[in-house]
Amino acid sequence: MASLMQKFAEAKQQRLQERADFLAACEQSRQVREQEFQEQAQATAKYLAHAEQNRLAWEQGRQAIAENALVKRHEELQDRAEQVASYLQELNETRVQKAAEDSEERAQEVRNRTFKSRSQLKHIHKARIRNGVSARQQRQQLVKEREILTSMQLEDLQKSRLAEAQVAAEQRSQEASLRATEVASQLQDIASQRIAMAKVDIAARSQEFLDRAAEVQSTLSDIHTQRMAAAEAQAEQLRSFRANLKASVWSGDRAATTVEPVVKPVTKIDNLVTEKKPTKVSKKAIPTVEVKAVEASKAVEVKEKETPKEAVKTSNKIEQFVVDYVSQLSTNSSLLEVVNDRDTVRDLLAQGANTLKVDPSDILNTLLQMAEAS
Asked: Is residue 352 within a helix (H) or strand (E), and if so which, with residue range?
């Protein structure tokens, strides 16, 4: 351990010695550099002083040379200025003289050219006048020739057009006559065909009318038979209903009686087909019996159309009378209460029959229908 510490101390001492040696060497080198720098500075100062002396001497010599050169240049400039002035004066004199001569020459040349131009223009104008006169005469001659030629061509063209128009008119007249003949023949054929077809149609329509008239007559006879049977049945029912109603209304018995409403029979008509009206046929082809049958069928149809209207009017009157009668009652009864009250119904039927001049059964049926509807 002691040896190790001794080694460390020796190493440290060695490092310190080396550092001291290094510092001494650095100081010595610094001193050497300072000495060298001083020597260089002295040498530089000497060189600069010598150079300054040389420069001053050179400047003095150059200034003297420049002054001598400046004097020489002034002298040369004066000589050159005198030479240039004399040369310019001579040049100006020569230019003025030459300009005067040139001006005179140009004026003379202009006068000559003007004279020549005028003479040429006169000759050209005269030539143009002569050419214009000859050209106008030629144009007039050419126009006359063209007019003659054009008139001849127009005459020929007019003649050819007239001939062509005459030929075309003849052709058109021939074509029109041919077409008229063809149209007349076609119209005659069509008329004959239409007459034949009309005869056939008339025969067919007359036969169809006869068939339909027979069918209508048979149908009307069937309808009449059915209606007569229905009318007899309805009359029988109405007689029985009136007898029952009279017995129930005008009798003094207040017992409840049932009144059966009258059921109107509905006649069913079969095999009735509505067709278009047949076309008009000659009156000679219609028998008298068929005409009467048609008139009878029309009368029946009119009656059938009028009967429902009258029934509707009567029903409306009865309904209005019933409404007014019920509204006049002091008990403010409803239709059902009125129907259930025998005395009120009897009074209503009596007043309605006397006022409206209708059958009491119609009033009773209307009252029952109104009660059911309410």
From this structure: helix 342-356
